[in-house]
Structures are given as C-alpha cells and as structure tokens.
Automatic annotation (TrEMBL):
<dbReference type="InterPro" id="IPR009057">
    <property type="entry name" value="Homeodomain-like_sf"/>
</dbReference>
<dbReference type="InterPro" id="IPR036271">
    <property type="entry name" value="Tet_transcr_reg_TetR-rel_C_sf"/>
</dbReference>
<feature type="domain" description="HTH tetR-type">
    <location>
        <begin position="9"/>
        <end position="69"/>
    </location>
</feature>
<keyword id="KW-0238">DNA-binding</keyword>
<dbReference type="InterPro" id="IPR041583">
    <property type="entry name" value="TetR_C_31"/>
</dbReference>
<feature type="DNA-binding region" description="H-T-H motif">
    <location>
        <begin position="32"/>
        <end position="51"/>
    </location>
</feature>
<dbReference type="Pfam" id="PF17940">
    <property type="entry name" value="TetR_C_31"/>
</dbReference>
<dbReference type="InterPro" id="IPR001647">
    <property type="entry name" value="HTH_TetR"/>
</dbReference>
<protein>
    <recommendedName>
        <fullName>HTH tetR-type domain-containing protein</fullName>
    </recommendedName>
</protein>
Amino acid sequence: MDVDTPAPAARRTAIVDAAIEVLATEGGRGLTHRAIDRRLDLPLGSTANYFSTRTALLRAVTQRLLELDIVSLEELPARRMSKDRTASFFAERLTRSFLPDMRHHYIAHHEVLLQSARDHQLRREIAEARQRFVKAAARILTAVGCADPEYHAPGLVAMIDGLLIDQLLYSDKPFDVQHLTAQIKRLLMQC
C-alpha cells in the first residue's frame, strides 16, 4: 500500500466527516458524492466507492453524528451529584460543546433530522438513538434523586435540544452559563 494512501477505515471516516461539513455548509441538497470528492480533493467517484448511494452516505453521517454524541454521554460523572451541581455540569457541558468548531456538527445533525422526515429507516435509527439519550437522562435524574426519572427524562432531553436550536438559530453570542444553569436547575427542581 502506498504510504500516502489512508487505510480504508480512515478514508471512510474522512469521507463521512467531510459529508458532515457539506451538510452544514450546503444543506441536504448539497450532499452529493461529487461535493465530498471535491471537498477532499479526491478523484471523482471516490466517495461512491465507499457509499454507493446518497442514502448510504446519509446513514453513515447519522451514525457518525450519533457516535460523537454518545461519546459525550460517557463524560457524564457516574457519582451522585446535587441538583445544583448537575445543572452546572450540564450548563458547562453545553457551553463547551457549542464552541465554533462544533457548530457544523449541530447544523448537520438538524439537517439529518429534516432528511429523516422522508426516510423511514433513518427516522427509526434516530428514534432508537434518542431513546439512548433519554435513558442516559433518566440515569442522571435518578442519581440526583428525582422521584420519577422516566417521566422527566424526555423533558430534559427536549429542553437541551431546544436550547441548542435556540443557540444555533437565534443567538450570535455564546451561551450565558449562569442563565443556562438556572434553566436546567428549574427543570431538575420539578422532579
């Protein structure tokens, strides 16, 4: 193998990461094999060697985004925390995760959500992944002493999704950590 040629797994990851960038900058209509080949300066047809259809490419993007999000769940502390500390942890985590280099990640994530409205299999995969986040939220709520964590977990996930959308679409300023902490704490205190 040529020293300059990346291994298939590395090339595949590079293609999917480039697809995330294309989705974020050009939208769903811009996600083509050619756009990715151009972005990576690959010979035309290279992306199609790894993902024969746009649907296969879109599913790989979805899996990659979910994989990156799930890694972030592993950062959650396993120990019991107070509601104040949990609210602070989430606020700090959201603030840190919404750095400029992550903006494309969230834009691409929402592009995938829009694409899933017309793709039943993709919608099913996203729904299954969301359940993993809801279960993680329930574990966190259990750790903070929530009386009914299964009831409140979907609300916590929806609130975080909403905060991200609000930040993505309507704000040109960074998250206000204190305000964010207060919002999350208010939800936690209802448990």
